[in-house]
Design a protein that fits this description.
Blueprint: H1 3-26, E1 31-36, E2 44-49, E3 52-58, H2 66-84, E4 91-96, E5 116-121, E6 124-129, H3 143-153, E7 157-161, H4 167-174, E8 179-184, H5 187-199, E9 208-212, H6 215-218, E10 227-232, E11 237-238, E12 247-248, H7 249-263, E13 264-274, E14 290-293, E15 310-315
Parallel strand pairs: 3-4, 7-8, 7-10, 8-9, 10-13
Antiparallel strand pairs: 1-2, 2-3, 5-6, 11-12, 13-15, 14-15
Helix pairs in contact: 1-2, 3-4
Length: 317
């Protein structure tokens, strides 16, 4: 790697850092994305979590030997540290393989020592794991969507499907939702969800429910006209052994959304999101005339031009 390439990286990082730090301070944010594969020679994603940095290296073919790669990465981290003031020993690195779904997030990796920290977003606390999984436990790209949910949640019956670590549920419960149900196939993430509720001092076993279930099957068991507000953020594809059926979001989204709508009260709101970049929503087959693409409206400042997901607001007629 030539000095010129490193200089290009440093210049891009400085540009991003000055602009995004200003935005983050204005919004009182301490967790935000600094860089995401902006330059082909630097296929990494850099996120700040308060006084720590998480770096995900995308698995790309390169002509570097192991020794050259180590030199490249050492210099890359030095530049990041110099720019941000975060010491290298406060950086945690993961290799992010090319995947078409989020199933890999459920696989715990062998690490010598786990690094779990508590971070804050808009007054809410979240446990973030910088070492053990592919993802940290807090999807920064849905920061605005979480605020939209909070704005709608007071006195509502809220359902969070494919809830992961239940950040949407924290926002809803904190905003005064009457009932909050978080549904996921992973017991690990449901336990993590309960810990997130505990650190936010949200304790109400009659109102807050953590459901271990296959969402596709679970939707068939729900009562009609019950929920006011729903979030559904499924994986693109899943063939987990714990599921009765394969989930393919392009094929299955109409059935999933219509099953959710059946369980919602008239006027109820569903926020539906997918990370499948080639996703095409089937407007004709979904049982609602009120479907709005809010992808742009839910794109945070640190994801502009780099967001790889879709988001829709669907209202039950």
């Amino acid at each position: 790697m030539t000095p010129e390439k490193f200089q290009m990286f440093e210049n891009r990082l400085l540009k991003n850092y000055k602009h995004r730090l200003k935005q983050a301070k204005r919004l009182s944010l301490t967790c935000w994305r600094l860089y995401d594969h902006d330059l082909p020679e630097f296929p990494i994603c850099i996120e700040l979590y308060e006084e720590y940095i998480y770096i995900a290296e995308y698995n790309r073919r390169h002509a570097l030997t192991d020794e050259e790669h180590e030199i490249w990465f050492t210099e890359t981290k030095r530049i990041v540290s110099e720019m941000t003031g975060v010491p290298v020993d406060h950086m945690y690195v993961k290799l992010r393989k090319r995947m078409s779904h989020r199933e890999g997030q459920y696989e715990k990796e062998a690490v010598t020592e786990s690094k779990i920290i508590t971070v804050q977003e808009n007054g809410h606390k979240f446990l973030v794991n910088l070492t053990d999984y592919l993802d940290t436990g807090l999807f920064l790209d849905h920061r605005i969507t979480r605020q939209m949910v909070a704005a709608e949640a007071k006195d509502k019956v809220f359902l969070n499907l494919f809830s992961y670590t239940s950040s949407f549920s924290i926002y809803a419960a904190s905003a005064g939702a009457k009932e909050v149900s978080s549904v996921d196939l992973s017991k690990t993430y449901l336990g993590w969800s309960e810990d997130n509720f505990a650190i936010n001092l949200l304790k109400n076993p009659t109102a807050y429910h953590f459901v271990h279930a296959d969402v596709k099957q679970y939707l068939k068991t729900l009562p009609n006209n019950y929920y006011d507000l729903v979030v559904m953020d499924p994986p693109t594809f899943s063939n987990s052994k714990r599921m009765k059926d394969i989930l393919d979001i392009q094929r299955d989204h109409v059935e999933l959304i219509n099953d959710v709508l059946k369980a919602m009260k008239p006027g109820g709101i569903l926020y539906f999101s997918t990370n499948f970049t080639q996703f095409i929503i089937d407007l004709e087959k979904i049982n609602s005339q009120q479907i709005k693409d809010i992808t742009k409206a839910t794109t945070p400042f640190d994801f502009e031009g780099r967001l790889k997901r879709w988001c829709y607001k669907i209202v039950k007629d």
